[in-house]
């Protein structure tokens, strides 16, 4: 039996505590935005989950490069873990965005470049999972997964720069703002504090989940090899 | 630069092989062409391409047509290699594998450009617009290059998977979006007669993605075909 590492338990506690603290801060510490009201509070988790999604896909690409150099299957299991978690957080990002957009833009969804490119990014990683499911041989699956994670991540910068290249209505809260954006606001110091804390909390939650998912992959491999041993 | 000559001769051998096989069978080009014309005709019904509406969406229709036809060619070009074990033969040859990749990609690019070269005037005649603008032709060249660069890599992965034929579009379309979007925007700019300063950002983005996709695919192709 694989023993659960002590550090992982510590990380579990830290993740739960910081997530609860971030939720508390969002509801009770962050001030109400004057124009948008309570729905603006979605912003803290919306951006944090978007950040974690991007981070996760970046991790998958970097791990892909490492795998192609080292050819060690351990890096492949990190890659799958990162992609799966990235998909989940990008989905949270899109859904929270829709919840905010309903009252502010008066629609759940609009064909804005920012929204569209984020969704295409999500589809890249669905394609990643489909590619993997089409290949049985673990070594080849790992190689193709690594290549696709690298190629797929190349199109991610477009998502990031789309708010600057296209004329878009999605607000840019950090840095300069397009006057055409709708629902933009300036952060007060308290908002900035809550925002930074939720970024930190989501990052801790991310690394905790990543570690768990990697362990799950290892355990699944053990089960598989034990089953083969029993059959033999 | 002594290493360059065998590289180029290996590359041109692969291109020559593909062109000759295509010249004898004429399978891929004819399929791509008929398919491209069908797509344009279907768009005519689906979008009700009125003269006043058409100007804005011509670039989109054009690129969707080229992308669909391109997928057909890319799928075929690698499936042919895989079917009778030709790919193994190619890989056994004592040449740099990057040369094989570049050769395949270049042949695919030629096929796609040939289709574009026929589709453009036909589209122009059918819808009474002039598409043979020099700047637009450059955009077609650059857009096809980026699409084929990443498409050749992905199709060589797709043919090795269990779901082969259906996998390539799923892998390729989301990844190729930066190339297709910037090509559509630049094409639309030329069709609308916009100034260079309006087109230039998209043109630059297109060139940037061409360089990125080509060089990354060039580097990782080796790990896609290794056994």
UniProtKB/TrEMBL annotation, chain A:
Mode of membrane association: Multi-pass membrane protein
The UniProt record lists the keyword Heme: no
All copies of domain Cytochrome c assembly protein, residue ranges: 15-170
Keywords on record: Cytochrome c-type biogenesis, Membrane, Transmembrane, Transmembrane helix
Subcellular location(s) of the protein: Membrane
GO-annotated cellular components: plasma membrane
Protein name per Swiss-Prot or TrEMBL: Heme exporter protein C
Species classification: Bacteria, Bacillati, Chloroflexota, Anaerolineae, Anaerolineales
Species name: Bellilinea caldifistulae
Keyword Transmembrane: yes
UniProtKB/TrEMBL annotation, chain B:
Entry's localization field: Cell inner membrane
InterPro entries per record: Cyt_c_biogenesis_CcmB (IPR003544), Cyt_c_CcmB_bac (IPR026031)
Keywords from the named record: Cell inner membrane, Cell membrane, Cytochrome c-type biogenesis, Membrane, Transmembrane, Transmembrane helix, Transport
Record keyword ATP-binding present: no
Membrane topology: Multi-pass membrane protein
MF term (GO), any: heme transmembrane transporter activity
Name of this chain's protein: Heme exporter protein B
UniProt source species: Bellilinea caldifistulae
């Amino acid at each position: 039996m694989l023993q659960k590492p002590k550090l992982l338990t510590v990380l579990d506690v830290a993740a739960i505590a910081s997530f609860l603290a971030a939720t508390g801060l969002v509801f009770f510490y962050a001030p109400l935005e004057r124009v948008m009201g309570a729905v603006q509070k979605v912003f803290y988790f919306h951006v944090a989950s978007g950040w974690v999604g991007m981070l996760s896909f970046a991790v998958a690409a970097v791990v892909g490069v490492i795998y192609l150099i080292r050819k060690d299957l351990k890096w492949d299991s990190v890659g799958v873990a990162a992609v799966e978690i990235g998909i989940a957080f990008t989905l949270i990002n899109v859904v929270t965005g829709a919840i905010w957009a309903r009252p502010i833009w008066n629609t759940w969804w609009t064909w804005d470049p920012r929204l569209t490119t984020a969704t295409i990014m999500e589809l890249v990683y669905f394609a990643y999972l489909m590619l993997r499911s089409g290949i049985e041989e673990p070594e080849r699956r790992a190689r193709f997964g690594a290549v696709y994670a690298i190629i797929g991540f190349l199109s991610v910068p477009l998502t990031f720069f789309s708010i600057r290249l296209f004329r878009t209505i999605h607000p840019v809260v950090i840095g300069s703002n397009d006057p055409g954006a709708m629902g933009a606001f300036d952060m007060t110091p308290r908002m900035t504090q809550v925002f930074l804390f939720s970024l930190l909390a989501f990052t801790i939650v991310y690394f905790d989940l990543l570690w768990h998912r990697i362990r799950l992959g290892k355990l699944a491999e053990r089960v598989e090899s034990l089953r083969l041993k029993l059959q033999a | 630069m002594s290493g360059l000559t065998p590289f180029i001769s290996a590359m041109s051998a692969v291109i020559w092989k593909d062109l000759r096989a295509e010249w004898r069978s004429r399978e891929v080009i004819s399929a791509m062409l008929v398919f491209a014309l069908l797509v344009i005709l279907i768009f005519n019904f689906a979008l009700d391409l009125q003269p006043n509406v058409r100007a804005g969406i011509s670039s989109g229709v054009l690129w969707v047509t080229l992308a669909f036809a391109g997928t057909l060619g890319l799928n075929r070009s690698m499936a042919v290699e895989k079917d009778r074990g030709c790919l193994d033969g190619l890989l056994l040859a004592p040449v740099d594998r990057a040369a094989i990749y570049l050769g395949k990609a270049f042949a695919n690019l030629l096929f796609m450009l040939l289709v574009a070269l026929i589709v453009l005037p036909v589209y122009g005649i059918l819808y009474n617009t002039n598409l043979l603008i020099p700047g637009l032709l450059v955009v077609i060249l650059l857009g096809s290059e980026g699409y084929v660069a990443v498409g050749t890599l992905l199709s060589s992965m797709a043919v090795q998977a269990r779901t082969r034929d259906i996998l390539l579009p799923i892998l390729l379309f989301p990844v190729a979006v930066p190339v297709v979007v910037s090509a559509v925007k630049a094409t639309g700019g030329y069709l609308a007669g916009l100034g260079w300063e309006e087109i230039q950002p998209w043109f630059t983005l297109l060139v940037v993605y061409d360089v990125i996709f080509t060089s990354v695919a060039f580097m990782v192709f080796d790990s896609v075909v290794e056994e």
